[in-house]
Amino acid sequence: MTTPLISLIIPAHNEAAYLPRLLDSVDAARRAFTGDPSAIEIIVVDDSSTDDTAGIALRAGATVIPSTARCIAGARNAGARAARGALLAFIDADNQMHPQTFNEIVRQLDRPDVIGGATSVVPERWSLGIAVTVALFLLVVLPLRIDTGVVFCRRADFERIGGYDERLRFAEDVALHIALWRLGRKTKRHLVRATAARAIFSARKFDQFGDWHYLPIMFKAPWYLLNRRAGDRLASRYWYDSGR
Question: Rounded to whole angstroms, how far apart are CA atoms 67 and 8?
Fold first, then answer.
């Protein structure tokens, strides 16, 4: 059996409606990979799903890891523990992958001055509210290089920083980037935005809560991070108990 080079980890809780299109995009990216496609390992972490998430993943040829964490940081870490690749990549189950993603991850992590990064995203649909949200988000990510989409790094660095912080029910991806950035400062490496392979992010939260809903969350983010109780209420309402 070929030892994987890249392990793609997909946390999923009741994602039967969205997972097939992601896995189709992952398959296209594997076929476009200039290396050996068998060197790409796909892991779906089934985080207490009650629908056919696990079955869909198995039928697509993915490795399924059961989890009862009901915490996205915990699900991501469970996938990383099971992964065999030297390079780790993470994507949400409702996103879609760019065909050049795996090529771009290898290209970036072949550079000794890069510690990791993310591909960035484009929305699956546009509106004025979504455009304003994306513009404000870019004001943060451009100077800090803390982005979203497909997040990637070397396994050794992921383990060195302790993976995702499981004390966090949200913003765990931001915390991971900050931890990588701090490690990168010590080792003279930096984060990158691999925008040549932007992922497509789902608009389902905008469909559910409205195209302008994310702006108050962005402005209140410091309060949610400082006030644990308020942050937990937000996480439950927005991510964990939102009917998905």
Answer: 17
Distance of CA 59 to the CA centre of its chain: 22
Specify the 3-state DSSP secondary structure of 173: helix
Burial of 141 (0-12, 13-18, 19+ CB in 10 A): middle
Kind and range of the H or E run holding 156:
helix 155-160
Q: Which residues pair with 152 in a beta bridge?
A: 89, 117
β-strand partners of 41: 7
In this structure, the strands spanning 40-47 and 63-67 are: parallel
Q: Tokens 């780790």 label which residue?
A: 88
117: β partners: 152, 192
- Edge-to-edge strand order for the sheet containing 40-47? 63-67, 40-47, 6-12, 87-90, 151-154, 114-118, 190-193
Opening angle at CA 199, ends 194 and 205, nearest 5: 130
Q: How far is CA 240 from the centre of its chain?
A: 16
Overall size of the chain counted in residues: 244
Per-residue pLDDT of the chain (244 residues), as tens digits, is 679 999 999 999 999 999 999 999 999 999 999 999 999 999 999 999 999 999 999 999 999 999 998 999 999 999 999 999 999 999 999 999 999 999 999 999 999 999 999 999 999 999 999 999 999 999 988 888 889 999 999 999 999 999 999 999 888 999 999 999 999 999 999 999 999 999 999 999 999 999 999 998 888 877 887 787 888 888 888 878 755 5
Instruction: Answer for the pair 4, 87: CB distance below 8 angstroms, yes or no.
Output: no
Helices 172-187/72-82 angle, 10° precision: 50
Neighbours of 242 (CB within 10 A): 12
